[in-house]
Amino acid sequence: MGDYGMMDKEEIYSKVLRAGRRTYFFDVRATKAGDYYLTITESKKFTNDDGSYHYKKHKIYLYKEDFAEFREILAEMTDYIITEKGEEVISERHQKDFKRDDDFVAQEAKTSEDTQSTDNFTDISFDDI
Question: Whole-model pTM?
């Protein structure tokens, strides 16, 4: 493996946010030129019928030239949501007396079957960076 492959694997700076079944990973990585960029990975845990589990991951790459606009839009959108709906979570799932219905359980099981395990997850690197 070349130097770039080793550098890409190196954790320059990382933070983790655990949020129920979701975990968010914020990782600073380096380009070939030695500049830094941010990856944000959402990892969601799914449980199979046999009790085993797997994770479904989504990753975005955020480069310095996009930080200011990204930060502005993220602040605008989060402020809008809080202004319109407040900070309290509004969801049947979060209610004290919430009971799953059979259709929801069946759909969630089907979704779990359709997702891939982390063994099949591909981390894409951009050679032109």
Answer: 0.60
